[in-house]
Amino acid sequence: MAGKAQRALWSRIAAGLLAIILPLSTISFWAVYTVTNTDRWVATLQPLATNPTITNYIAEEGASTIVTQLNVENRIAKVLPGPASFLATTITTQFQNTIARALGSALQSSAFQKLWEKENRFTHSTAVAILSGDENQNISKARKIVINVTPAITSAIDKLDAQGITFLDPLKKKLNVDRVLALNLLNEKELQQAQRYFHLATTLEWLLPFLSLLLAALVVVLAKPRRQGFRRVSLVVLFSSAVAYGLLRIGIALATPLSPTPADVTKAILNAVTHYLGRELLILTTLGALGLIACWFTGPTKGAVATRHQIAGAIRAVRSGISRGSQQITHKDWKGWSQSNRNQLASILRVSDVVVAVAVVFIVLFWIGSFWGLVILVLLTGGYYWLSHQVHATLDQAPPALGEGSMTSEDAVESDATK
């Protein structure tokens, strides 16, 4: 008895350690794989090219740079009569807004998205070298990780030039030489922290996942019965991943006001950079929840046993009906069986409705990336709830009197137990 209690204690200790190490191993793997893999790096940053918050910011910064580089306000002031010189600022602002709208329109094109991908591939090796602290690639003076968007601005100027707006042409050469416009992903302070985390992640890249698997195995092996160990692992995966995801969202919210870029731009960048991390944590959370459901379903509790017998009864009814014809499945086997097990089925359907509703919310927030994807999700969800409503309506009808050969779920349990 003492040995069993000691094994249970060690199983709980291993579960506690797993709750700490599992999120760290997930974050470590995400950091190393996202940063060192060029395709993953490009895929991570590519959504920013179609994000209106980012494209509008680039357009506004580009217009501001153009106005500054061309010294527009002073030029306007010189051509205005003396008494009207105070209008130079207003005219310059209107001019800048016009340029921003023109640039914003150009940045919505597929050409900009291709240019964005090309720039990300070009700067990937530099970003890896900076995060790794590599001083051998002439980047010792780099103090931040940026994406140069000057080519996007010059491409937009070319489009304006094709429309007959040529007064920006003299600025293109200067922009290309100085690379004066860039989207800041990490400033100097954030970079120092990121370098420390990245170094730690690369050091523990394989150690943490190995420890996670080892601890999970120990939790199961030391637990008696084994199902309790599986349930404990599932609970740890569900809880730790959900907490880590919550902390990730809180971290983004806290970091947003501290960035030198506007809050909405910083939030868009952080959401894009951590997209895959959030998805992996949600997948782990879902796996933990499915593991708990599986442990309950295969367990010895009265509800689990009754559910298994009812599912087996439904399968037998369908098979029996198939052998006699599909019409008899609907009107005889399925209806009779469903009415005799109506309470249990109604409970399962209510739980299923809640699970589907929660799943739809998560899918809309984190997976749906297009209008047609949303339409398909709405159609599938509507179809499910229509079907659920029909089943609920059937189950809500008054149950028929039990005739010869009918049996309740309790009778089915006892009959199968006898067998």
Describe this structure in words.
With 419 residues, this protein is mostly helical. It has three domains: 2-24 and 206-297, no CATH class; 33-194, no CATH class; 322-418, no CATH class. The protein contains 18 helices and two strands. The protein has helices at residues 2-36, 38-45, 52-69, 72-79, 88-106, 110-132, 150-162, 169-178, 188-203, 207-222, 226-255, 263-273, 275-297, 302-324, 326-340, 342-366, 371-396, 409-418, and strands at residues 145-148, 182-186. A two-stranded antiparallel sheet has the order 1-2. Helix 10 runs antiparallel to helix 11 (226-255). The longest helix is centred in the first third of the chain and has 35 residues, at 2-36. The radius of gyration is 31 Å and the shape is elongated.
The average pLDDT is 75
Discrete helix count: 18
Class by helix and strand content?
mainly alpha
From N to C, what is the helix and strand string? Answer: HHHHHHEHHEHHHHHHHHHH
Tally of extended strands? Answer: 2
Shape: elongated
The multimeric state of the shown protein is: single chain
**Largest beta-sheet characterization:** 2 strands, antiparallel
For the CA atoms, what is the radius of gyration? Answer: 31 Å
Could you give the distance between the termini? 34 Å
Q: Stretches where pLDDT falls below 50 for ≥5 residues?
A: 137-142, 400-419
Short description:
This protein is mostly helical. The chain is 79% helix and 2% strand. It has 3 domains: 2-24 and 206-297, no CATH class; 33-194, no CATH class; 322-418, no CATH class.
List keywords for this structure.
mainly alpha, two-stranded antiparallel ribbon, disordered C terminus, 3 domains
